[in-house]
Each structure stands twice: as structure tokens, then as C-alpha cells.
Amino acid sequence: MRSWFVLFLFCFFTCFLSPSYGCTVVVAGRDATVDGSVIASQTADGWYDSNLRYIPAMDHSAGDMAPVYLYLLGEDDRKPQRIGEIPQVSRTYGYFKTGYSSYNQHQLAIAESTIGQKDELKAFWPETKAIMTIEQLAVFALQRTKTARDAIGLMGSLAETYGFLGSCANEGEALAVADPNEAWIFEIMSVGFDWSPDSGVPGAIWVAKKVPDNHVAVLANASRIDFIDVDDRENYMFSDNYMEPAVRFGWYDPSSGVPFNWRKAYSPDSGVWASSSMWVRGRTYGIYRELAPSVNWDPYGELGSYPFSFSPEKKVSVPIVMDLLRSTLKDTVFSMEDNQAWLVPGVNGELRKSELATPLPDRATRTLLNIPYSRPVAAKSSWSFVSQSRSWLPDDIGGVLWIGLGLPHFSCYVPIYSGSRDTLESWRNFDPEFFDPLSMRWCVSLAGDLVNRVYQRAMKDLVDVRAPMEGEFIRSQPEVEREALDLYAHSPESSSQFLTALTLSRMDMVHKAYWSLCRKLIAKYAGNKLW
Questions:
Q1: What is the mean pLDDT of the chain?
Q2: β-pair partners for 367
Q3: Looking at residue 165, what DSSP letter applies?
Q4: Which H or E element spans position 469?
Q5: What gap in Å lies between CA 425 and CA 508, rounded to an integer?
Q6: Which member of 10, 40, 227, 470 has the greatest number of CB atoms within 10 A?
Q7: Where is the signal peptide (predicted)?
Q8: What pTM does this model have?
Q9: Strands of 414-417's sheet in order across
């Protein structure tokens, strides 16, 4: 009976879950950025919990237990369910919480991207005894560690002990983990639905590879780590059992003399989560092409033709990474905006692009115009972020989480310093069932929908509102940090209060600007004004 139930679950998830919920990650080492920051970033693509809350640092008593939750993503109406517990530590650090929590008070950043794993590895709740989802592992890492290496070691150890449970289509996961000094890519897989803590074997397999300091790495929902140098502990971390499932299932023969390839051993050979899928390759091509344009990247090339990481031809900055997250793959073979179906006769009979042409056409429009779908970087996001971690500044001031709610193509990034201790109500009150102009995410969603109706005209209206705000945030950053440092020298608490107040005022300004934009867009383009 049990095997039939598991088979049913497998068929359900395989047939009905699509890759529209994949996330894109870009991470840059300190020598690959214009100012020496370590940068991490992510688009959270799916209908996830985007309510941005600050969870403060806390002290705990001896013997306390920390709950382990399922359904932390908030992608449906299921509330987080407590499914286990682990021993608590004496003190947990403050962090910023969303469906995928991403940043803590010590400048530790975690960016997530689901990756495929072979069917035999998958674990299904509640049949499995594995309880550690990637979002729960990230929370524990943000609460308990300060460095990327320590975060990876903790997440790997917890997953081995308590079992890794894939929460996005039961697949594997990849994270970019960054601190003020270095960045890593961490990949983790389950070990099968029948694992239990008393089996005597680890409940996960995982590997991590350091991103060279002068390189950029990209995650687009596919494994990027292939060969593992077990003797190079400076640049690799891994579970002792990383090869065991591949041997057990016949995916690798240690006596063959062929080096073990993690990606080939555990990634699906076909299907939407395979590394050969065009929804993976299109985003990878777009970002590599943007940062290393002189290289003749093949847009249809196998993922293996793209290196794990690369040196950008121009050092990257926060605004450059923001643009990458907003990318619709324009001017590439994957651009839906550039499809010839959008061409219409002009006044003199010449063909021109329709003002309705958009890089983000919905399914009905694509079907009507016969436009093939190409997955852009700026997909159906709940939020996105770009983080800066800087070693030469105190944690409170050196860490900045630039975050935007909703689709990054339409959202505005607001900087939140590690020293900030609160977020604005309008940035944490989103209810997906009811529109509310007092919700920042609803304002971004409405503005994006209105712009997308007549994109060629209305996108300028949005940019005219957004660009001055983001530009001022970036231009004023040195001045803000000088003032924060002056306060910090006398009282770190005063610096934190200053940064918190600044964050709240900026959040409020952006929210009000977007609601005003929505009203302007309605007045300008609604009410049959497009006839």
C-alpha cells in the first residue's frame, strides 16, 4: 500500500507542477565587484510569502528546543506546520524573514534556486521521515552562523541528521551562500523516500564549491557543480556519502576509472528539471552574454558548455545585478518582446512594433499570437533581492539588503542595512486574497499589470517614478554610511536607530510613490482610452 501511495504522489508532482516556480541567482566574489562587496541576489519566482519581517536576536535557555516547520514558503493557504524539533542554541541572530529567508545581522546572505534530482532520490511528506526543507535550513543558518563556510557546514550536518526534504516539486536545491569575504554554491539532494533517522545512513547528500573571488556564478534551476576535488578543502565542502547513492543505484561505477561527476550522476536526464531544458539554458545564456559579451556563447548550447563561474569583463555593481534580475532577455533569440507577431502596419504602411508588445505576455496572448514561451529572468516573482556584504565596515553598516516586492521588472529596490531592526507595515501585510492599496506588494502588482497592458507606452511612466528613487538611494549611500559610522563610533545602538528610521521612511516613500503611480496609470490608460 505504501509503495502505491508514494507512486501516486510522484505522479501528481511530476504531472502537475511546472518549472514556473524556479528562481534565478547571481553571486559575485569580492574581486569581481566595483567596490569589493560580495554580492548575492535572487528572484523568488512563485506565489510565496513576501511579507518582509525582521526577526530579532534572542537568548534561549538550556534545554530549549527549536521547532522545525513545513510549509514555510506560504505558497498556498496552508499554515506552517511543526513537524519536528532540534536542540536550541543559547543565542540566535537577527535576520530578515520571507518565504525564503535571505539575510542576517552579520551580513550572511543566502539565495535559493531549486535544482532537479533523479526520481529515486526524492522524499515525499508525510511518508518520509526527513524533515529539513531548504527554507528551514536557511533559517537555522541565518540564526546560528556568521560565515558562509559555517552556514554550509551547519546546513549539511542538519540535513544529514534529520533528512533533507525537497519542498519545491520534491526536487533538490542549490544556494548561493555569501559573507563579507567569500561566496559559495551549495547543492543538496535527498536520499530516497524510505530514509529514516534510525537507518544508520545520512539523510542527505551535499556538496559546496567556492566561487573564485574574481568570478561571478549563476544558478538557473540546474546543478552547476560537476567534479569534486576531495583534496582541496579550501574550495570544496561535501558530505562523506556524496557518492553513495550514485553507486547504489548504478549511476556511477567507482572501478570505471572515470572521475565522479556530481551533476551528471544526480541531475535528471530529461524533463522540465533537466539541465538541458531551455528554461534553464535561456537564462544562463542571457546572464553570461551580458557579463562576458565578447565570448561567443551558444544560446542553445548544453549547460556543461558554460563554466561553473567566470570573470566578468566589467566589474559588477549593485545596479548591474538589479538589471540582470529585471532581464527579459531582450535582444536575444529568447526575447518574447521582439517576436515578429507584434509587428503591425504604421500610418504609412510600414511595419512597426505594436504599443501592446510586451516582454511578459500572458498565456492567452502568447496563444493568440503564436509566440513561443521563453522563460525570462524576471518571471513570476514574489520578491527579489541584491545583497552587499563588506568586510571593511561594521556588520550593521557593511551589510545592505536591497529588496523589491513583486516582479523585479516592475518593482523598486529599497536598501535595508543589517543594522535595521524593523520593516514597515505596508511591506509585511500582503494578503493574496484581497487587494489593498496599503500593501506595497499589491501596489507593485497592480502597477505592473497596468503597465503590461500597453507596455511600449506605459513602462516609461513606471521608470520615471522608480529611477529617481533608486538613483538617490545609490547616490546617497556614502553619505548615509558616513553618518552611520559617526554614530556607531559613539553608540552602535544610535547607529541602528538611525538606519532603522531611514529604512522605514524610504519604504514609506516608495510605497506612496507606487500607489500614486497606480492612480496615474489608471487615469491615463483605463476607461477605453486605448481605443
A1: 95
A2: none
A3: -
A4: helix 455-475
A5: 9
A6: 40
A7: 1-22
A8: 0.95
A9: 309-310, 216-219, 24-28, 38-45, 381-389, 400-405, 414-417
Query: Which residues pair with residue 86 across a beta bridge?
Result: 66
C-alpha 201/C-alpha 199 separation (Å) is: 6
DSSP string, 132-148: B-HHHHHHHHHHH-SSH
- In the numeric block, which cell numbers belong to residue 445? 502588482
What size, in residues, is the chain?
531
Instruction: Please write the tens of the pLDDT for every residue from 463-502.
Output: 999 999 999 999 999 999 999 999 999 999 999 999 999 9
Distance of alpha carbon 191 from alpha carbon 195, whole angstroms:
7
The DSSP line for 200-264 is SS-S-EEEEEEEPTT-EEEESSS----B--TT-TTTEEE-TTTTHHHHHTTS--GGG-PPPBHHH
Decide if 284 contacts 303 (C-beta within 8 A).
yes
Q: What is the SS3 assignment for 360-388?
A: CCCHHHHHHHCCCCCCCCCCCEEEEEEEE
- Amino acid letter, residue 407: L
- Is residue 526 predicted with pLDDT exceeding 90? no
Count the helix, strand and coil residues of the chain and give each as a percent rounded to the nearest 5.
35, 20, 45
Task: Look up residue 51 and give its three cell numbers.
Answer: 511579507
d(CA 16, CA 380): 17
Q: Partners of 104 in the beta sheet?
A: 95
Cα 109 to Cα 178: distance, rounded to the nearest angstrom: 5
